[in-house]
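Repro:
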Amino acid sequence: MNTVKLSPSLMCADFIDMRSALDVFQREGVDYLHIDIMDGHYVPNFTLGIDFCKAVARYTSIPLDIHLMIENVDEYIPSFASIGNALLSIHPETCYHPLRSLRLIKSSGARAGIAIDPSMPLETYKHMLPEVDFVCIMTVNPGYAGQELIPQTIEKIRELSAHIDERGYDIEIEVDGNVSWKNIPVMVDAGADVLVAGTSSLFDKSGVLSDNLSRMRGMLGQNKLSRVASVC
C-alpha cells in the first residue's frame, strides 16, 4: 500500500509569513500544495488567484494542487493548467460539458480531477472516472476553512474507494474538509490517499508548523499499518 500523501491548504497559512511555511514544506518534502481558487459566485468567498499560484510555483518545486471553485471554469483552465506539474480539480456542476473540461485540463499540461460537493451522490460522477487522475471528496461545504465534518461523507470516501478497486482505476482519493487530528484516522481507514490539511491539524495554532507536520506523519504511519491489517 502507498503512503498517504499530504497537501497543505495554503489558504490556512499566514499570508504575511508564507515564505516560512513554504520553506518548511520544501524542506520536509510534502507531496502537494493545495490552493483554493474562489470567485465569490460558485462559493460565497474570495481567496487566491493565478498570480499567487505562479509566485508559489517560482519559489518551490512542490506540485500545486489547484482547486477551482469558480464559474466559467473553461475560460481559466489553460492559465492554471499551464503551471508546471500542476494538479487541477473542477466541480463538474460548474461546467456545461465536464468531460470536455477535463480533457482541456490534460491537453493544457496538468493532471485532471473532479471535486465532489457533500450533497452530491457518487453515482452522478462515476461515468467521469476514466477521465480523471484524482477525485477530491469534499467533507465540508466548499467555501470556508474551519467547518465541522459532515459525517455522511466518510461513507462516500469508502464507497468511492471500493468502486475504484473494483474497476481497477489508477485514481487518488483526496479528502478536503476538517482533516482534524480526530478525523484523520477515520478518513485514512475509509480510503483517503491524499489529505488536504488545514486549520484543524497542520495549521493548528496551538502547535508549531513543523511539529504539527511531524505529528501528522506519525499518525499516518500508524494508520498505514492498521489499514493494511484491515484488508489482509
